[in-house]
Amino acid sequence: MASKEGAGNLEWRINVDNGATERLVPKSGPSIRIFLWLKGLVMKVILERLSKFMRKTWKIGADDPAKVVHCLKVGLALSLVSIFYYMRPLYDGVGGNAMWAIMTVVVVFESNVGATFSKCVNRVVATILAGSLGIAVHWVANQSGKAEIFVIGCSVFLFAFAATYSRFVPSFKARFDYGAMIFILTFSLVSVGGYRVDKLVDMAQERVSTIAIGTSICIIITVFFCPIWAGTQLHRLVQRNFIKLADSLDGRVEEYFKKKDVSENEDEETNMKLQGFKCVLNSKGTEESMANLARWEPAHGSFNFRHPWQQYVKIGAAMRRCAYCLENLSICMNYETEVPDQVKKHFGQACVKLSSASSKILRELAEMINNTRKSSKMDFLVFDMNTAVHELREILKTVPVATNKPEEGDSNEDRTMPMSVHEVLPVATLVSLLIENAARIQKTVEAVDELANLADFKQDSKKKTGDNKAKQPPQRSTPGTITNKAWGVATEERLQAWPRTAGPPVVMNPISRQNFIVKSRPE
After folding, report:
1. Among 320, 311, 333, 356, which Cα is nearest to 448's?
2. What family does the database annotate (predicted)?
3. Is 413 inside any structural domain?
4. What is the pLDDT of residues 111-139, one digit of tens each?
């Protein structure tokens, strides 16, 4: 054992068998070990939570870069408006009230152009109106002599009551709720504050000028620096909802009739598609809010100044009616009662055909809205869907009343047993929901057609005229007469198969989308 002293420290070393020396380190006590263990545990927990928080924060920005852009624009707006506070000439020019401009930027700057425009206009108009009324009330109160306090108090009560009550009116609240709140604040400050202030008019002018500066900076930055339009967001939301409905409808029906265990064998993305109709059910508030904000925005892109934004709300309501059908369809498929395979096989092909035809219409509607063009094949798709509905109704009339079940003793021998009502009821309910969903999809098509007419959607470039007459939508001159050759050929096989003893068949006209009776058969 040897000792070595250096730099004021004493170090002990020992000789080992191989001739080397090792440093002797004193053992730490129990309290030190417990402290070090707790320190490591706390640091590990803190680092894990910090790492998890940073990953979530990064994911939010990566999934929606518009949020990062909005944060950058808010910082830029505040930096610009702060110049009025830092520079003495600008600060004196607004009477030392530059802080009002900063407060204006903080409260009116929103994530999209429509919301920013709405708050800016509401704030400016409400401030000017309330300031003018406050000055008028102050002048009347000065002329009333001893009744000055009574006049000011009564005016504050009446105007505050009227402005607050207006916020309960739905049509007013949707567009001017923020303006009513600013009106109450400004009127109270001017009318009540004017009782102790001599230069009331100068104070009101400075307040209006600072608000004008703040709102101007907000509008310039939100419009000219990476603008985020509420109208475009609404347009894309409706288009995505159509695709989600189509994916949910296709996936649900195929899962039921083709025995696809999606929850176990498919990935998470497929499960999300099956639940897409729930996003449509929860989008009502977002659609109404965006539609109200889009009305404040100037013309941009393919949207004119008076674009029919409220029609998107009607389309969303029509889509939610379809989503309610899909929700009931999902519940119906989860019945505990086991449906015989014979019944599923009887309805499977027709149900899959109807769901496929319906989902094609939903995807075509999404394409119409995405391209802002009228569809050249929508009439044919609706015709196919109504044909599938008619076929499914005919199959519903021929439900099997018996099923083949294996004998208990011998699995190779089958016996015919009558089918109970509760075994057929789930499939019958599913068929009824599919037919009802087709009718609701047709109402949705009408709502989108109305939007196309109001917004002047252009004709589809794929739709030709002249030499491509065979691909034009079927036309009819009078009820009961097929005038388009392509349509007649498409339904010829169905008419030939119609029993001679039965009544005249019913054919769907894809233009009017109404049934009519065919009075003659093709020879």
Report:
1. 311
2. Belongs to the aromatic acid exporter (TC 2.A.85) family.
3. no
4. 889 999 999 999 999 999 988 898 888 88
233 lies in some domain? no
Could you report the average pLDDT of every consecutive run of 10 residues in the chain (523 residues)?
A: 51 59 61 77 84 88 86 91 78 71 89 91 91 86 82 90 92 89 88 69 80 90 90 92 90 73 56 79 90 88 86 93 88 70 77 89 92 88 90 78 51 53 73 89 92 86 47 40 40 45 45 43 39
Whether residues 158 and 304 share a domain: the answer is no
Predicted local distance difference test score (pLDDT) of residue 82:
85
Are 161 and 199 found together in one domain?
Answer: yes
Strand order in the sheet with 2-6: 2-6, 9-15, 21-23
Strand 402-406 to 506-509 pairing = unpaired
The answer to whether residue 163 sits within a structural domain is: yes
Encoded tokens for 20: 């080397």
Residues 370, 371, 375, 376: is their CA dihedral positive or negative? negative
Torsion of CA 63, 67, 69, 74, to 10 degrees: -170
Q: Do 38 and 92 share a domain, yes or no?
A: no
Quick one: 455 and 324 in the same domain? yes
CA 356-274-59 angle, 5° bins? 130
| Separation of alpha carbons 341 and 260, rounded Å | 14
Q: Are residues 149 and 70 in the same domain?
A: yes
Q: Which amino acid is at 125?
A: V
Q: Rounded to two decimals, what is the model's pTM?
A: 0.73
| Contacts for 98 with CB less than 8 Å, ≥ 6 apart | 81, 84, 85, 90, 91, 210
Which residue in 219, 201, 206 sits closest to 121, CA to CA? 219
- Residue 444 belongs to some domain of the structure: yes
* Residue among 161, 61, 71, 164 nearest 109 (CA): 71
Output the domain CATH number for residue 351.
Answer: 1.20.58
Q: What per-residue confidence (pLDDT) applies to 511?
A: 41
Buried b (16+ CB within 10 A) or exposed e, 142-155: eeeeeeeeebbeeb
- Asked whether residue 346 falls in the same domain as residue 208, the answer is no
* Structural domain span for residue 426: 239-401+419-463
- Residue 79 shares a structural domain with residue 145: yes
- Note the helical H segments in 109-229: 113-143, 148-166, 170-193, 200-224
Per-residue pLDDT at 502? 44
